[in-house]
Specification:
Layout (H helix, E strand, L loop, with lengths): L1 H7 L17 H12 L10 H14 L7 E5 L5 H9 L2 E6 L2 H13 L5 E4 L11 E6 L9 H14 E13 H6 L3 E7 L10 E10 L3 E10 L2 E12 L1 H10 L2 E7 L13 E8 L5
Parallel strand pairs: 1-2, 1-4, 2-3, 4-5, 5-9
Antiparallel strand pairs: 5-11, 6-7, 7-8, 8-9, 10-11
């Protein structure tokens, strides 16, 4: 195990993928779902009060009368999708987590809500439909490599109607500058987020070039040793606009977040509203 640990402690290649799909691990995905559903936790999903403000603002600037069909990418357990449906949108939700999608479907059924949910990967998105509005909320875009971001923007472009809008957010350079590098470890005598029995977690935060951060967790339990990577690209407003325009979008507006707050040098996120031009592609 020591040799394996030594190998895991070597710095990974930029945007090296996690071998263990923790979002579909039976135990970890359960902890992730609980984190999503905690209204006061700002980790897996934003806090409930922010979600409410965000949905209200989106409805105001992109009303369902003008943008009736809405696709929410990275919908998780349906915190945004159900609120969008209550606003009058015809809603579709996509997420890679089977547990989250199963929860979202059950929740919608229990509330007699008509929401279409699909468990799919953004990179191979294939819904056979086109939408007036697509949202991708809580900085999922920056969790992808530059190559995969181009793929995702292409998939989104394909699934938008001409004149359709895309709203998403990313972490800003203020977030990158405040990111603290370092290493810590934690001993869990019983269940924790990553394992349900005694285990140790080695945590490492690193900054890479191109304004990329890595949060690495190495989890050791009995004879089980796994490493998990959480990557994030942070953006300047100019860099984000450039990627959007290179994908064929027209920039409509830039905000500080997906609740419509203004963007300034202290904003931890940048939200961008884009349009698929009717006469393009």
């Amino acid at each position: 195990m020591f040799n394996e640990l030594q190998k895991l402690l070597e710095l990974p290649e930029l945007y090296q993928e996690t071998e263990a799909a923790f979002w579909d691990d039976d135990y970890i995905s359960k902890q992730m779902l609980q984190a999503h559903l905690d209204p006061d936790f700002n980790g897996a999903s934003r806090k409930l009060d922010f979600i409410e403000k965000s949905v209200s603002w989106i409805k105001e600037i992109l009303p369902p009368q003008c943008y009736p069909s809405l696709l929410d990418l990275g919908c998780g357990p349906g915190l945004y999708t159900e609120r969008f449906a209550n606003c009058g949108y015809k809603v579709t939700g996509v997420d890679f987590s089977r547990r989250s999608i199963a929860y979202a479907r059950q929740s919608a059924e229990e509330k007699s809500m008509v929401i279409n949910y699909y468990q799919q990967n953004y990179l191979t998105l294939n819904l056979g439909a086109h939408f007036d509005l697509i949202t991708m909320i809580y900085c999922d875009y920056g969790a992808l490599s530059a190559a995969n971001r181009r793929i995702v923007l292409g998939q989104i472009y394909h699934h938008l109607k001409p004149g359709g809008k895309l709203l998403f957010d990313v972490f800003s350079m203020e977030k990158y500058n405040g990111f603290q590098e370092g290493q810590t470890w934690d001993l869990f005598k019983s269940a924790g987020f990553w394992r349900e029995k005694e285990h140790v977690v080695l945590n490492r935060n690193c900054k890479y070039g191109d304004n990329v951060t890595l949060e690495q967790m190495i989890v050791a339990a009995d004879h089980d040793l796994k490493s998990y990577y959480l990557w994030n690209s942070c953006f300047t407003e100019a860099a984000l606009i450039q990627e959007a325009e290179e994908a064929g979008f027209q920039v409509c507006s830039v905000y500080g977040d997906v609740a419509g707050n203004p963007c300034n040098e202290k904003s931890l996120t940048i939200a961008i509203l884009l349009e698929k031009q009717p006469d393009c592609k």
